[in-house]
Amino acid sequence: MLYTYIPLTVLLLPLAASAVQIFAGRRLPRGGDWVSTGAILAGFALSLPLLAGLLAKGDPHFRHEASVQWIAFGDVTVTMGILVDNLTAFMLTLVTGIAACVHFFSVYYMKGDKNYHRYFGYLSFFCFSMLGIVIADNFLMIFMFWELVGFSSYALIGFWFEREAAAEAQKKAFVVNRIGDLGFLVGLMIVFSRTGDFRLTMVFEAASAGAFEGQFLPGISILTALGIAFFLGAMGKSAQFPLHVWLPDAMEGPTPVSSLIHAATMVAAGVFFTARIFPLLTPGALLFVTLVGALTAFMAATIALVQRDIKRVLAYSTVSQLGYMMLGMGCGGYTAGLTHLFTHAFFKCLLFLCAGSVIHALGTQDLFRMGGLRKKMPITFATMLLGTLAITGVPLFSGFVSKDAILTEALARYLENPGSLRLLIFTAGMLTAVLTAFYMFRLLFLAFFGKPRERTLYDHAHEAPPVATVPLAVLALFTLGFFWSGTVDIPLPGHGLRVPVVFIPEGWLGNLLSPPALDAFSGGLHGPETPAAVLPHGEGGVGDAHEAAHGIVSTLSLLSTALGFLAAWLCYVKGALPTMVLRKRLHPAVLFLENLWYVERLYQRVFVEGLHRLSAAVFRFDGRIIDGAVNGLAGRSDSLSRFIGVFDNTVIDRAVNLAGEASQNFGHRLSRLQSGKIQNYIFLGLLALCCYVLIGVM
Q1: What sign does the dihedral 310-316-325-410 (CA atoms) show?
Q2: How far apart are CA 213 and CA 528, in angstroms?
Q3: Mean pLDDT over all residues of the chain?
């Protein structure tokens, strides 16, 4: 019962807090912020023993399910229930822990806002929606909470809806995610048509039994189509190319909201769902996931190079890191992708909250108006430095753990089965690592190093109070790598010195988050249409390919981080590489990146302007053809009506009137026979009798 009631309580606490905030928050002391903060803290406190219990069990395949009947029609029964496994426990703790830090920071950041109580109500509902996705045991429930997450993000992105940019951003996020959700709906239809059930376990068992055998299209199996359809939904939520365009604009919401969206809720939902459907992903579907992830990671990293807005740099960084996660998943690195989800949640939440501290202190988001803040804001600087070291993959920090594991999986696939496409995927991942180091140290140097670029802003800057800096310190603690994995010794190339670094497959996280396969749900695997076909060595790090790949990646990772740091230091600290000169020499490339690879312009031309042109053409067709035909028919109908009116008045009415007059005259003359005199009646009777006799004689 523990595994049933704790997740349900964790789920319902923020829902109750949201209801209190929305309906009564304005009348509560301090706008009721303590209600939402207390609810999410209680959820975090309950999640910890749940996670500790599963860690104590040490069972990578632990699974607890509980459900009740929801809808029954005919032979079909739809249930609502919860699924608790290691992934659920980790995500519950992650979401509530990150959200608790965001709630505390929001008390400082949102102080004085006229809709303070409504903000915390939306924040609690956002957490409720994400937690529902985490514990749901069937695809239909996941989709319901999936849509609630979309609604919550819509409300929070446009929280300051009085600003036109915020209103446009919330609509953009809503519309783009609906495109991805169409794929999710197609997946639901395939699942129900083939199994008659939505429960995850039952669908996995049905897949193992061959329920999805057959061809969807020539060369594409039904199971592959199902995996791609579901992944389209994940592409929308996790902002994967080409549905990535909504996430940078989501920065129009309050910065703590951006932190929560980018760290543990909406974008995390897509990666989490990809992990949930991992047993259904065939080699073809995994290849699709890998290609989308690699392209997204590289594209977003290049765009981040030229952003001036501190929040937009971090936004494109999130898009890039999400691409990393999908790349890892697609290469079969289930544990690697999930570990990067967890490590990224902490350092990205930290980076966004640090950015929020800077924005709150200066009143600007423009990096080129900052500078020299490390002396004015030492705590913010120190914690942001740790977050930067983590995301750039410096050894002993969390990003090194997860990023290297992903790149190891990508390189191992190439070493096992060499091919130009696999090499291109790994190369994209390594180039992204270099770019990540460059744009993150660029952000750090522009904001905290050098001389103040605007003295008035610098003089106004101040360190945040403890209610904001304590969450930063807690998050910074989890950027350290030893929290996430065991330790192995890796020799430095050309030296006898060995340094301890962390490596996922040999740590506790890798053991507890091993990839689920269809044979975990039934008797065995059926043919090559299972993820096991692309996991010849599993996630345990065994096999010559993985060992060789890890050694190569560890070396290249150090070089990529060093190269990115050195380039940023030369450009923005030493000035040895003048950025203005570089911009002029690389103007076409810079213009390409500043225009965001022209993706949004393409969407504007093809979809927005194209829809406008189509609407105008339809309007003209309606006005000239449809309205013309209707108006012409109406004119003819009017003429016909007039003719019928005249015919009715002159012919029909005249005939009726004449018949009436004749009948009246005949009746009037006949009435003269009714004189009332008995002798007249006797005379007429005799006359009639005579006529009758004469007729009879004749």
Answers
A1: negative
A2: 11
A3: 85
**How confident is the model at residue 694, as a pLDDT?**
82
pLDDT at residue 562, as a whole number: 94
- The predicted model gives 29-58 an average pLDDT of 90
pLDDT band at 440 (very low <50, low <70, confident <90, very high): very high
How far CA 274 is from CA of 237, 270, 330, in Å, comes to 11, 6, 10
pLDDT of the residue at 323 = 95
Judge contact between 416 and 536, C-beta under 8 A: yes
Helix (H, G, I), strand (E, B), or coil: what is residue 82?
A: strand
Distance CA 313, CA 306 (A): 8
* Contact indicator for 231, 182 with CB cutoff of 8 Å: no
Environment class of residue 220 by beta-carbon count within 10 Å: exposed (0-12), middle (13-18) or buried (19+)? middle
Among 472, 496, 295, 478, residue whose Cα is nearest residue 401: 478
Beta-strand ranges (E) seen in 534-689 are: none
Higher pLDDT, 504 or 240: 240
| pTM (two decimals) | 0.84
Q: What are phi and psi of 377, to 5 degrees?
A: -130, 70
CB distance 545 to 416 below 8 Å = yes
Measure the CA–CA gap between 134 and 82, rounded to whole angstroms: 9
Those residues with Cβ within 8 angstroms of residue 181's Cβ, 6 or more apart along the chain or in another chain: 143, 146, 147, 150, 233, 236
Q: Are 529 and 214 in contact (CB under 8 A)?
A: no
Burial environment of residue 58 by CB neighbours within 10 A (0 to 12, 13 to 18, 19 or more): exposed
As a whole number of angstroms, the distance between CA 492 and CA 513 comes to 29
CA pair distance 157, 123, nearest whole angstrom: 11
Provide φ and ψ at 45, rounded to 5°: -65, -35
138: β partners:
199
* 22-51 mean pLDDT: 91
- Which of 222-231, 261-270, 300-309 shows the lowest mean pLDDT across its residues? 261-270
